[in-house]
Prior knowledge:
Layout: H1 2-22, E1 29-34, E2 37-42, E3 45-53, H2 56-71, E4 87-91, E5 105-108, E6 111-117, E7 136-140, E8 143-151, H3 156-172, E9 182-185, E10 197-204
Amino acid sequence: MLxxxxxxxxxxxxxxxxxxxxxxxxxxxxxxxxxxxxxxxYPAQAIAEVLVSGERKEASSKGFRxxxxxxxxxxxxKQSIAMTAPVTQQxxxxxxIAMTAPVxxxxxxxxxxxxxxxxxxxxxxxxPQPNDPKVRLRMLAPQRMAVARFSGFAREEAVASNxxxxxxxxxxxxxxxxxxxxxxxxxPPWTLWFLRRNEVMIPVAR
Length: 206
């Protein structure tokens, strides 16, 4: 029993290492760092996103499947697109998703926007169009983000406590939030809890 558990742990560590090396992340510059908090500047980014409904975890899985389909070839060129991290999720607003407006998640009233960040250098002209009309491509303008890092499972209580801590950090440093909190998750679903890397991100004024 113990030996089997050790083997599973070793396999998980090896798989996590492969995934970490294979998955690229968007570039950014760190303007300020304090404990588990950072202020980062991100350049313009091309993203693919979907609007889904349901509880946070259910919506995340639903959105991930739709976006994974797009990057694995469900597009006009049947082209595979490199996977990047993080996947983000945030509460949706009443504003419609525009095609050219700016593994992330945000949501309101049970509606969530799930995003995959496209590989660095990708543009709306260079990306193939999705076959599924639910998948939208657009550009995010350059932005400054206040970030709180945390590990483990991104359960509601963990997301809520880290969001509150980040909001307190923003107030303490006289920053001005200009958008809703975003949950960013960097690991595939099978990653062991103590190896998971998550972030709460809030856009702030420069």
